[in-house]
Specification:
Blueprint (H helix, E strand, L loop, with lengths): L4 E5 L5 H11 L7 H7 L7 E6 L4 E12 L4 E11 L8 H15 L4 E3 L6 H6 L15
Parallel strand pairs: 4-5
Antiparallel strand pairs: 1-2, 2-3, 3-4
């Protein structure tokens, strides 16, 4: 399956498919379509999608570029990685992660980080190293 999947920058017309996938990704929040529609156009080249040869978006990755002092440059943080649950295990997520790493290298990033708990073992298998605990303080 991953051989007939292309990873590319998201386009405006991908919004419906990405929103549909988002519902299966979110566990701590509830997707709000109005907020999504406001924010989607602002994501720029930080949103990548996996598309089948038939033109169906079956996954996405959302990356944030952070200029940080500790690493002497940019760190790319992979905030969201989602593949259609029916198509998991076919290499689509790995293709998205590979595209994220390629994008980070092209931008001159120092590293790619992933805040996750549920997918820890998945990222370890892909060569990521465990380095920190991720904490949050909700503001709403």
């Amino acid at each position: 399956m991953s051989d007939d999947v292309t990873v590319r920058a998201a386009k405006e017309g991908d919004a419906e498919a990405v929103f549909g996938l988002l519902g299966d990704f979110v566990t701590s929040y509830r997707p709000d379509r109005e907020a999504f529609d406001r924010h989607f156009p602002l994501l720029g080249d930080g949103l990548l999608v996996a598309e089948t040869a038939e033109g169906r978006v079956v996954g996405y990755a959302l990356v944030c570029d952070l200029l940080v002092l500790y690493a002497n440059g940019y760190v790319c943080e992979l905030q969201e990685l989602m593949v259609d649950p029916e198509l998991r295990g076919r290499g689509i997520g790995e293709r998205l992660v590979a595209a994220v790493l390629e994008r980070a290298r092209a931008k001159g990033a120092v590293e790619v980080t992933v805040p996750t708990r549920r997918a820890r073992d998945y990222y370890l298998r892909l060569g990521f190293e465990e380095t920190a605990t991720y904490l949050k303080h909700p503001l709403r």
